[in-house]
Backbone:
């Protein structure tokens, strides 16, 4: 597969700025000089430093517009019986999960309410017309399902580029509308398999290490997933040096869109909290394009997926929470948002202490 628009990716990488290290250091000084015993605030100071660095100011300000952005798409590899969700709920479909989330039902919607976030679902490859869902973003739809990556390319080169650019466009829309924090999510049955393939190829990790049996997969399903990841990695290695070609070969439209979204969000100085293995695999690929991008990303949780742990280690990202939520839909990322808000307020109070209320 030929090199796809390498110059465009180079320009995109050059557009990603550094975060404000001085603001991060000022936050650290505030915490260290607060008079608390060393380490008493745990990681709150570190989290406040991330906010300060990405906002370019100290003390940092609480987030005013938090948005869960969820890229949805189906994957042909799900037909190989590799999905935990399909094993647990044979009647589940990506389309119905999208409807549930936008109706305000289920864990993803509940976590968004708890975090004070609104939800935006972007359909890039759901295998359903979805014409009955008025709140769904369908302008970015590239295809109805991505190809079965162990046998054929997930996307054509043109589809991969279109999905990547669609994700960039969503990032611009969010930045232009005033979104100051994004919880990035995924929604698609079978999406963890291409994510594992990307992590395995990008890190040179063996299949047995990158594939986790986890919850909901019996031995037979684990072997099917391991075989699919093995075959996907074999197909992806020859195009390792070309990010868009790799997404076309063994990724999917939703992963391509999320990768473009992460890079453009960093370029627009919009911080992003990552959820699980899908978002982390896209961050790993985006980091290969623009190494400064990781300064704008935070790992919301440890999901318990081995591929996600491998990606976090390679990106030097330390999860905010260890809650092992593997649902997608930005649930784990959203759970980290209240902790970020609390960290901001703790540091802000060191500069301008809040007057205690009278007990009477």
Residues:
């Amino acid at each position: 597969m030929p090199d796809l628009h390498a110059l465009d990716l180079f320009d995109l990488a050059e557009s990603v700025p550094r975060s404000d290290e001085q603001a991060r250091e000022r936050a650290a000084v505030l915490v260290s000089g607060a008079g608390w015993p060393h380490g008493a605030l745990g990681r709150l100071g570190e989290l406040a430093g991330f906010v300060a660095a990405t906002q370019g100011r100290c003390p940092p300000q609480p987030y005013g517009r938090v948005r869960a952005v969820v890229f949805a798409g189906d994957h042909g590899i799900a037909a190989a019986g590799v999905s935990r969700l399909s094993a647990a709920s044979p009647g589940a479909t990506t389309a119905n999960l999208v409807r549930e989330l936008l109706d305000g039902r289920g864990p993803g919607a509940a976590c968004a309410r708890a975090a004070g976030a609104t939800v935006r679902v972007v359909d890039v490859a759901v295998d359903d017309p979805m014409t009955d869902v008025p709140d769904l973003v369908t302008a970015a739809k590239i295809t109805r399902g991505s190809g079965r990556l162990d046998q054929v390319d997930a996307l054509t080169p043109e589809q991969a580029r279109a999905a990547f650019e669609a994700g960039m466009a969503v990032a611009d829309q969010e930045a232009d509308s005033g979104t100051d924090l994004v919880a990035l999510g995924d929604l698609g049955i079978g999406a963890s398999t291409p994510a594992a393939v990307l992590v395995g190829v990008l890190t040179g990790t063996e299949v047995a290490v990158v594939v986790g049996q986890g919850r909901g997969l019996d031995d037979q399903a684990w072997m099917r997933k391991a075989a699919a990841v093995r075959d996907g990695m074999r197909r992806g290695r020859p195009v390792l040096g070309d990010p868009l070609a790799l997404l076309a070969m063994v990724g999917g439209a939703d992963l391509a869109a999320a990768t473009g979204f992460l890079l453009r969000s960093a370029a627009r100085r919009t911080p992003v909290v990552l959820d699980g293995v899908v978002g982390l695999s896209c961050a790993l690929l985006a980091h290969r394009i623009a190494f400064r991008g990781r300064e704008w990303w935070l790992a919301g949780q440890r999901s318990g997926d081995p591929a996600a742990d491998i990606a976090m280690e390679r990106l030097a990202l330390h999860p905010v929470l260890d809650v092992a939520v593997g649902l997608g839909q930005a649930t784990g990322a959203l759970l980290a948002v209240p902790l970020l808000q609390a960290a901001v307020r703790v540091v802000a109070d060191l500069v301008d202490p809040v007057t205690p209320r009278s007990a009477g």
